């Protein structure tokens, strides 16, 4: 929990450094730090501690991306949270997504991170890869995405789906592959992705 939230916090700091100087962008979401406390004399020896957030607690994004949250879509904080998700997604080439954004105003806590199956730079998130796929399919850019110059995911997602459907029409069925590819060649392999 500490590792996930503090990793997301580091991404939020970089996002803030890029977004705050932009004219008209204004305040950016902040993920508050969370600390692990060791209490050896206690029957529960570890606990987490973080700042108490007073005010109306709002979920700006849900873990699985299926729910439509009007506070997310219509509020400044919600739009900036969605832009933050888009920014992280783009910066990591679609390999990582900060999700489950919630908190009071611009202060966020208890976030989640989804990564591709192999993780991202040695980090594995605590949410399913399906959250990345759902985000890619459901995200709607807003004025803050445009201010940061983020690429529309709609166009990218539609191109990927079209290319995938065209490729699948030209591919042989699985029984043909089984008969022509030796067993050893069909075993899954670990690939290390390089970053550009």
From TrEMBL:
Domain of life: Eukaryota
Annotated Gene Ontology cellular component terms: basolateral plasma membrane
Catalysed reaction equations from the record: L-threonyl-[protein] + ATP = O-phospho-L-threonyl-[protein] + ADP + H(+); L-seryl-[protein] + ATP = O-phospho-L-seryl-[protein] + ADP + H(+)
Polar residues bias (residue ranges): 165-179
Alpha-type protein kinase domain ranges (all copies): 1-153
Entry GO MF terms: ATP binding; protein serine/threonine kinase activity
EC number, as in UniProt: 2.7.11.1
Keyword Transferase found: yes
Oxidoreductase listed as a keyword: no
PROSITE patterns: ALPHA_KINASE
Compartmental location: Basolateral cell membrane
Biased composition (Basic and acidic residues): 184-196
Role of this protein: Protein kinase that recognizes phosphorylation sites in which the surrounding peptides have an alpha-helical conformation. Regulates cardiac development and cardiomyocyte differentiation by negatively regulating Wnt/beta-catenin signaling.
Protein name: Alpha-protein kinase 2
Organism: Calonectris borealis (Cory's shearwater)
């Amino acid at each position: 929990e500490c590792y996930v939230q503090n990793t997301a916090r580091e991404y939020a700091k970089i996002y803030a450094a890029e977004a705050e100087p932009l004219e008209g962008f204004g305040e950016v979401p902040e993920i508050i730090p969370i600390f692990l406390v060791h209490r050896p004399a206690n029957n529960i020896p570890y606990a987490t501690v973080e700042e108490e957030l007073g005010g109306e607690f709002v979920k700006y994004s849900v873990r699985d991306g299926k729910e439509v949250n009007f506070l997310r879509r219509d509020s400044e904080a919600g739009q900036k949270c969605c832009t933050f998700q888009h920014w992280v997604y783009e910066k990591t080439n679609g390999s990582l997504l900060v999700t489950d954004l919630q908190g009071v105003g611009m202060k966020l806590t208890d976030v989640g991170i989804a990564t591709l199956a192999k993780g991202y730079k040695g980090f594995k998130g605590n949410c399913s890869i399906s959250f990345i796929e759902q985000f890619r399919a459901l995200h709607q850019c807003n004025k803050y995405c445009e201010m940061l110059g983020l690429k529309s995911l709609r166009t990218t997602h539609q191109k990927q789906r079209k290319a995938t459907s065209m490729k699948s029409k030209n591919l042989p069925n699985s029984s043909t592959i089984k008969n022509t590819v030796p067993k050893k060649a069909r075993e899954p392999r670990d690939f290390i992705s390089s970053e550009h």
